[in-house]
Amino acid sequence: MSALFNFQSLLSVILLMICTCAYLRSLFPSIIDRNKTGLLGIFWKLARIGERKSPYVAFACVIMAASLLFWT
């Protein structure tokens, strides 16, 4: 089943995208900051969410990991 039709998989993909974009922005800020608008602006927005809401994103990652390990 694809991630579009399974809500738990969709949340996992979104959390992974947020964490990946924030990590890549910490390594290569010019690549992410170059594209603030348009289709590639989604990655800039995800990186900003990962930076500004990092305690909440980390908590969501821990909850998602626990749910995948123990309830799947």
UniProtKB/TrEMBL annotation:
Localization: Golgi apparatus membrane
Cellular component, GO annotation: Golgi membrane
Functional note: Involved in the early part of the secretory pathway.
Family designation: Belongs to the KISH family.
Claim: Cell inner membrane is one of the keywords in the record: no
Domain of life, source organism: Eukaryota
Pfam families xrefs: DUF1242 (PF06842)
Transmembrane region(s): 6-24, 54-71
Protein's recorded name: Protein kish
The keyword rRNA-binding appears for this protein: no
Membrane topology: Single-pass type I membrane protein
Entry keywords, A to Z: Golgi apparatus, Membrane, Signal, Transmembrane, Transmembrane helix
